[in-house]
Design the sequence.
């Protein structure tokens, strides 16, 4: 009986470990799945805290690992950089640096409804800038959705690279697959088409619609009048009718004489760009994690006695 209890405790502790990291808490609340499983985690010596990503059940773990490796090429201030990932043959996971952050759906819940237009515009300009940089490198994010957007005090971060490709292969319908928000999935991707930059723009339009109204498929009249043309253009069913990410950056945050199109988002991220309740929630999260204590690891089994 005692051996059974010990084995049970060991299984519980090992479930708290992914790679070299001990899990502290889930990032996402219960409800519709995010594009991947996300945890705040810490090294066993307590020295480093990260945001750890793992594949959802029902997605392709090998494809997830490939996307994680590819995501290391994504650089820029508005993309969560991949700093550590599973070794070949290990159960896939990857880590990005932790800082206090809220998934966009959580931010709306904390705020009590759609975000102010100034916040929506700042988020959109920064994410469009991140996508423009990726597209210039020949990369398609293929994972943009409300849950993939993380809000921090100094700007948004884009996570969950390649979720569309990990959820389902090209050529097969992807509607209803784990982790994919149907409202943020471009029609050509939902039907199984290869993800391309116009699909990222469609998804970003859905994210902005969500931030401004609370859902990804709003009626046109629900959108704020000043944002209605740009969001509607992103959501065009024909990919050829959508703007480029660079054009979207310029539309949301026109460059000044001191800024280029690809760094104009920073002009919108001035003090007060986030609502007060969201800032307060970020501060609470930071305090709670600083105070978090990890359970003690089980003692190693004694070495067998020599005979």
Sequence:
């Amino acid at each position: 009986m005692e051996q059974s209890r010990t084995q049970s405790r060991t299984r519980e502790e090992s479930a708290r470990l992914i790679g070299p990291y001990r899990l502290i808490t889930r990032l996402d609340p219960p409800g519709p799945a995010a594009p991947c499983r996300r945890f705040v985690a810490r090294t066993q010596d307590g020295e480093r805290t990260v945001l750890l990503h793992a594949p959802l059940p029902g997605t392709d773990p090998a494809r997830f690992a490939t996307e994680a490796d590819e995501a290391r090429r994504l650089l820029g201030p508005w993309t969560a950089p991949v700093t550590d990932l599973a070794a070949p043959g290990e159960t896939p996971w990857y880590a990005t640096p932790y800082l206090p952050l809220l998934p966009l759906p959580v931010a709306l819940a904390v705020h009590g409804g759609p975000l102010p237009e100034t916040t929506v515009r700042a988020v959109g300009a920064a994410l469009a800038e991140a996508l423009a940089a990726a597209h210039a490198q020949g990369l398609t994010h293929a994972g943009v959705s409300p849950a993939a957007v993380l809000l921090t005090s100094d700007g948004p971060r884009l996570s969950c690279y390649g979720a569309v490709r990990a959820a389902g292969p090209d050529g097969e319908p992807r509607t209803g697959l784990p982790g994919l928000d149907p409202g943020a999935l471009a029609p050509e991707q939902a039907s199984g088409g290869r993800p391309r930059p116009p699909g990222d723009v469609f998804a970003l339009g859905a994210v902005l619609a969500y931030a401004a109204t609370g859902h990804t498929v709003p009626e046109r009249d629900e959108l704020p009048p000043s944002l209605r043309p740009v969001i509607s253009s992103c959501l065009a069913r024909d990919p050829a009718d959508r703007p480029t990410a660079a054009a979207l950056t310029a539309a949301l945050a026109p460059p000044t004489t001191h800024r280029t199109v690809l760094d104009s988002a920073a002009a919108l991220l001035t003090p007060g760009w986030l609502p007060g309740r969201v800032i307060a929630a970020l501060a609470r999260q930071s305090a709670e994690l600083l105070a978090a204590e990890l359970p003690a690891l089980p003692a190693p089994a004694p070495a067998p006695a020599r005979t």
Summary: The chain is about 35% helix and 10% strand. Residues 1-14 have pLDDT under 50 and may be disordered. Residues 117-136 form the longest helix (20 residues).
